[in-house]
């Protein structure tokens, strides 16, 4: 038997609760992992609260990422005792995820734990940190270097935003952090932000072209926020878009694209090729000060995940939420 957060749905409603399940209930897969740590992400909160149709089949164990130790493997790449990390691949949406004591997955979805990270530190970063690094790598590929001008990070007090601010600041960029929580200004400056801007500046319909302000941006919001960011990019600037916290729509015009030659780079962390995943983790080990994780993460128990999902949806949680499942594995 093992404990797991389980989402069920009947004809009228969806409900998430902590359950005890038999190991025979685990889905198909060739590697079984005893989960050491999982996390609570925005997508997990959408799944648990049912506020977006994230879950594709029921019943479902949420949790889009986890770190842990291999218990059983029919994949030649892994053996019992190996420390591994999983991010994405539809886990927690189409395939049972990491908010459980056990996970059974396809070995191709796993990556070995990258030195010098511990299993806990890997989840302190998790999908949010790995996505943030993919965004930074996209800006670099498109020529956004610190000498080109300031960069903007929206949703800066969240998981992706917090790591993006910390990494970009350490790489020498002038970082402007956007947040709807002004009381988080000191926290954002501690991560390296040199400016803290009110989200309200970006949430209303804006001009097709605004004053050129940003050489690059990391956007987790979408909607009017992303449209306004595009309108205020400098000539040949780039925005890496990875989220939809402010909406699925993009109420923009082609003006910034055809008059300023900007680039809108889409970031997908779910189906990202393995080589890019490994490079993102390597870069995180190089370009993120591990001490910054102390201020970015906090723990909740598996029992507290369901109520915490509501708080996350209400914007009441900063940074990263770690869920220690078997924390005896460091």
Structural features, described:
- The protein has 330 residues and is an alpha/beta fold.
- It has 2 domains: 137 residues, Medium-chain alcohol dehydrogenases, catalytic domain (Quinone Oxidoreductase, Chain A, domain 1, Alpha-Beta Complex), CATH 3.90.180; 140 residues, 3-Layer(aba) Sandwich (Rossmann fold).
- Helix content is 28%, strand content 26%.
- Strands 3, 4, 5, 6, 7, 14 and 15 form a 7-stranded mixed β-sheet that branches. It has a 6-stranded parallel β-sheet with strand order 10-9-8-11-12-13, sandwiched between helices.
Strand content: 25-35%
Q: What is the average of the pLDDT values?
A: 94
**Rg (CA only):** 20 Å
Order of helical and strand elements: EEEHEEEEHEHEHEEHEHEHHEHE
* CATH architecture classification of the largest domain: 3-Layer(aba) Sandwich
- Sketch the major β-sheet: 7 strands, mixed
Helix fraction by DSSP (H/I, runs of at least 4): 25-40%
The CATH superfamily title of the largest domain = NAD(P)-binding Rossmann-like Domain
The number of strands is 15
CATH topology-level name of the largest domain: Rossmann fold
Keywords:
single chain; 330 residues; alpha/beta; Quinone Oxidoreductase, Chain A, domain 1; Rossmann fold; 2 domains; seven-stranded mixed sheet; six-stranded parallel sheet; 9 helices; 26% strand; globular
Task: Give the helix/strand layout.
Elements: E1 2-9, E2 14-21, E3 31-40, H1 42-49, E4 65-73, E5 83-87, E6 102-105, E7 110-112, H2 119-141, E8 151-153, H3 159-170, E9 175-179, H4 185-191, E10 195-198, E11 214-219, H5 223-231, E12 233-241, H6 255-259, E13 263-266, H7 274-287, H8 293-296, E14 297-299, H9 305-313, E15 320-324
Parallel strand pairs: 8-9, 8-11, 9-10, 11-12, 12-13, 14-15
Antiparallel strand pairs: 1-2, 3-4, 3-6, 3-15, 4-5, 5-7
């Amino acid at each position: 038997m093992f404990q797991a957060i389980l989402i069920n749905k009947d004809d009228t409603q969806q409900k998430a609760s902590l359950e005890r399940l038999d190991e025979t209930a685990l889905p198909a897969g060739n590697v079984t992992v005893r989960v050491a740590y999982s996390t609570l992400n925005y997508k997990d909160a959408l799944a648990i609260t049912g506020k977006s149709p994230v879950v594709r089949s029921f019943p479902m164990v949420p949790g889009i990422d986890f770190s842990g130790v291999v218990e059983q493997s029919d994949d030649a790449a892994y053996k019992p005792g190996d420390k591994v990390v999983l991010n994405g691949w539809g886990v927690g949406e189409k395939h049972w995820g990491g908010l459980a004591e056990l996970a059974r997955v396809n070995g191709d979805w796993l990556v070995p734990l990258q030195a010098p990270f511990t299993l806990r530190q890997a989840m302190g970063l998790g999908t949010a940190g790995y996505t943030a690094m993919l965004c930074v790598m996209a800006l670099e590929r498109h020529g956004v270097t610190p000498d080109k001008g300031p960069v903007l990070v929206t949703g800066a007090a969240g998981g992706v935003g917090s790591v993006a601010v910390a990494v970009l600041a350490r790489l020498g960029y002038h970082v402007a952090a956007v947040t709807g929580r002004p009381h988080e200004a000191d926290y954002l400056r501690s991560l390296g932000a040199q400016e803290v801007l009110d989200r309200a500046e970006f949430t209303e319909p804006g001009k097709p072209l605004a004053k050129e302000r940003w050489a690059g941006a990391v956007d987790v919001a979408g909607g009017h926020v992303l449209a306004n960011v595009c309108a205020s990019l400098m000539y040949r600037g780039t925005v890496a878009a990875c989220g939809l916290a402010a909406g699925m729509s993009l109420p923009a015009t082609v003006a910034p694209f055809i008059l300023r030659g900007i680039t809108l780079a889409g970031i997908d962390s779910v189906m990202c090729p393995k080589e890019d995943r490994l490079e993102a983790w390597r870069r995180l080990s190089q370009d993120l000060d591990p001490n910054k994780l102390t201020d970015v993460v906090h723990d909740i128990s598996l029992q507290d995940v369901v109520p915490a999902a509501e708080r996350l949806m209400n914007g009441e949680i900063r940074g990263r939420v770690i869920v220690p499942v078997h924390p005896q594995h460091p």
